[in-house]
Amino acid sequence: MRAESAAVFEIPLSDAPDAARLSLTRAQRPATASAMVIDHQGQSRVVEVPGENALTVYLDKQEIVTLMTLGQAPEALIMGYLRNQRLVESLADLLSVHVDWDVGACAVHTRQGRGSELAARTATRMAKRTVTTGCGQGTMFGDWLDELQPLHSEATLAVSTLDAALARVLALDTVYKRAGSVHACALLRNTPAVPLVYHVEDVGRHNAVDAISGLMWLDEEGGADKIFYTTGRLTSEMVMKTVQMGVPFLVSRSGLTQMGLSMAQEMGITLVCRARVGRHLVYSHGERIRRGGA
């Protein structure tokens, strides 16, 4: 694969002088493209449409999956995907993540390489696939329902903080406002000022959450004091990934599925749906929501 199609840089994986380093590209794609349309009055005008790019992932030269993505944070997306699928357990296992849009591929190399215990575990997990309700059909590998551990959290969320978080996300200059047809995910701190940690848009909500998971992995960002927001519906896949990130509050402007609700109840996730500033519905673990002076 040709690395010259994007800048390559290295980051240390710890503060130690001799720390192992991870080689990454920065291969962001344009978020939108122009299209000529004819409106209801018969007038021609130019509008923006979101990008959509096919990116095939190779893990130690083994083809894993092809993702359709906006391409705003492709390296973080791939890392988050591998993390959430548990195909790579530790950031220290990764040697390089290189995206080349000239060939529409991402080459991921691990320190162990092919023929290692990691490669054997990857093959075992990939032998069992579950097609999820993700946009464009997502896939989960392995016995993921049996692998989750419940999230035990004593965190609470004030309604005023929830409303401030929703207002903050709404105020962002987004691809959705310019072109529509994308989903967004955001990670915010659970404090009155609700600082925005990450915001990612993509053609599928599962891509956006994977990208945020990858960024959290890179930055060693924990989830216990965070709120996760998505524009998409809350399915079992979304709940599962939120559990893996360790975030107790999952908020959506949309609805949820029965399996998503059951999993949230069992796994200790507070689900807040149909969320707008000033109104929302809490479906699970509502004892964590503080109202008024509570």
Structure overview:
With 294 residues, the chain is an alpha/beta fold. It has two domains: 3-26 and 50-147, Ubiquitin-like (UB roll); 157-290, 3-Layer(aba) Sandwich (Cytidine Deaminase, domain 2), CATH 3.40.140.10. Helix content is 26%, strand content 33%. It has eight helices and 18 strands. It has helices spanning 74-84, 117-126, 144-147, 159-170, 175-179, 205-219, 236-245, 258-267, and strands spanning 7-12, 21-26, 32-38, 44-50, 53-59, 62-69, 94-100, 105-110, 129-131, 139-141, 157-158, 183-189, 196-202, 226-230, 249-252, 270-276, 279-282, 289-290. It has a six-stranded mixed sheet, with helices on one face. Strands 13-12-14-15-16-17 form a six-stranded mixed sheet, with helices on both faces. α6 runs parallel beside α7 (236-245) and α7 (236-245) packs parallel to α8 (258-267). The chain is globular and about 55 Å long. It starts with 6 loop residues before the first strand and ends with a strand. Mean pLDDT is 89; it is low at 133-137.
Helix-strand layout with pairing:
Layout: E1 7-12, E2 21-26, E3 32-38, E4 44-50, E5 53-59, E6 62-69, H1 74-84, E7 94-100, E8 105-110, H2 117-126, E9 129-131, E10 139-141, H3 144-147, E11 157-158, H4 159-170, H5 175-179, E12 183-189, E13 196-202, H6 205-219, E14 226-230, H7 236-245, E15 249-252, H8 258-267, E16 270-276, E17 279-282, E18 289-290
Parallel strand pairs: 2-7, 5-8, 11-18, 14-15, 15-16
Antiparallel strand pairs: 1-2, 3-4, 5-6, 7-8, 9-10, 12-13, 12-14, 16-17
